[in-house]
Amino acid sequence: MDTDLTEPEHARAEPVDEGSPFGPVGVVGAGAMGAGIAQVAATAGHAVTLVDAAPGAAATAVERIGAALSRLVGKGRLSSDDAAAVLARITPAETLDELPNCGLVIEAVPEDLELKRRIFGELADRQPSTTVLATNTSSIDIDDISAEVADPERVLGLHFFNPPPVMELVEVVHGERTADAYVEHALALMKAWGKTPVRCSSTPGFIVNRVARPFYGEAQRIVEAGIADAATVDWVLREKGGFPMGPLELTDFIGQDVNLAVGTSVWEQTGRDERYAPTAFQQELVEAGRLGRKSGRGVYAYAADGSLDASAQDGGPDLELAGRLVGGPVATDPLARTVAMLVNEAVDLVARGEASADDVDTAMRLGTRYPRGPIEWGREVGFDVVARQLAELDEAYPGGRYRPSPALTDGSLT
Ligand SMILES: NC(=O)c1ccc[n+]([C@@H]2O[C@H](COP(=O)([O-])OP(=O)(O)OC[C@H]3O[C@@H](n4cnc5c(N)ncnc54)[C@H](O)[C@@H]3O)[C@@H](O)[C@H]2O)c1
Fold it and tell me: Which residue ranges does the record annotate as region Disordered (predicted)?
């Protein structure tokens, strides 16, 4: 993808009302996500304290933010005065004690439950009882993180996507114990920051990382079963499906290890639901160190500059094969099979009351750049058709992975 990863879409967002309950913002963890979130909050007008426990890390992150803002100035997207004002609003710090009383603190430390739980306990002790405590976790249950907070109703997830200044989507995640009023506040604040928030419950993978699972899994299974090679599957999803990248090239881009870890986490958290079971295909890639672009080889081979190494590929897509598969039986049609599973996953999420149909579609369009939201896609294909396709897949591959959601045929989503 050619996205310029440094350009905030709302660099000129108006400062948030000083009188709002969200005054100063604290960001804990100044890595890839924390630094980006700090930039977004400061651009929206908040005074931001950016804390990182590693000596000098927060100060270095502020320098990185300064460089990103300068690039925007260079492109005429931000005036140098505005860039200087944004940067001046961010203060680096090394301990939680240096945080002022904040309206909101967003935690973005590594994905480790014990670490996050401890930080939330400490934040709850140090910050006023009205401070909203948010986590940027991608996979941990919000209620697990708030376990040591005396008033867990103020703890919620603000799941930004990478890179935060560019990606418009934020999943606002509520735990069992999060109070609605705080969720409403968070939704309003994210809009004020120029983001498009969606609301979901603390279900494994939230919306995007849950609904997207079959996009990867079906492609891997199709290749594993010898139905088609990777280049042909990717070509079909890209050229016939309108997806910006094929699933196999996308997992190479993300990192096979990272993608496998997210999938495995959803699988574990759903009690090892067959739908999310990792494939031997991907496990073998990871075991062989074929992690994707970053290691020079994944599903495909890459040159030193990260571009596809054409001389090392087995050949391009087999267009004759693609022509035979697309529109044929669903079990061997990479596009129909993937779309049916995406629709099923989305419909199930909505039927369980974990997110609204509109929010699922918005999340998938903005978070993954799918050409259509899966619910909208299901309406187009026909939920009854999707149910029949899944029944066919279930017969071809029994075991529960392809069980159709009852909501496909109960009329609740038409
Ligand atoms: N990277 C992504 O694409 C992405 C996207 C969405 C969400 N997330 C989530 O965001 C969180 C952060 O991810 P990241 O990629 O920015 O990680 P990262 O490793 O780049 O940064 C984490 C930072 O936290 C600091 N840190 C560690 N312990 C700390 C402590 N006790 N107090 C303060 N700072 C501490 C580290 O020094 C490091 O700078 C994770 O929960 C991750 O799952 C990541």
Answer: 1-23
CA angle 206, 399, 269 (to 5 degrees): 25
Average pLDDT rounded to a whole number, residues 135-158 = 95
Is the domain of 294 the same as that of 399? yes
Which of 52, 168, 209 has the most ligand 1 atoms within 8 A of CB, as the residue to mutate?
52
> Quick check: 12 and 193 in contact, CB under 8 A?
no
Model confidence over 63-72: pLDDT tens digits? 999 999 999 9
Instruction: Out of 160, 178, 202, pick the residue that ends a domain.
Output: 202
Q: Cβ neighbours of residue 364 under 8 Å, at least 6 residues apart?
A: 207, 208, 211, 212, 342, 346, 370, 373, 374
Rg of the chain over all Cα atoms, to the nearest angstrom = 22
Residues counted in the chain: 414
The minimum-distance atom of ligand 1 relative to the CA of 160 is: 6
User: Are both 148 and 294 inside the same structural domain?
Assistant: no
pLDDT at 414: 60
Distance (angstroms) between ligand 1 centre and the Cα of 109 equals 3
* Residue 171 among the catalytic residues: yes
pLDDT at 312: 67
Domain residue limits at 294: 210-405
> H helices within 89-148, ranges in order?
113-126, 142-145
Q: Structurally, how many domains does the chain consist of? A: 2
Mark whether 190 and 61 lie in a shared domain: yes
- The answer to whether residues 179 and 272 belong to one domain is no
Q: Tell me how far the alpha carbon of residue 46 lies from the centroid of ligand 1, in angstroms.
A: 21
Are 172 and 149 spatial neighbours (Cβ–Cβ below 8 Å)? no
194 occurs within a structural domain = yes
Question: Up-side HSE of residue 10: CA atoms within 13 Å toward CB?
Answer: 21
**Percentage of the chain exceeding pLDDT 90:** 89
CATH number of the domain encompassing residue 58: 3.40.50.720
At how many degrees (to 10) do helices 32-43 and 80-88 cross?
120
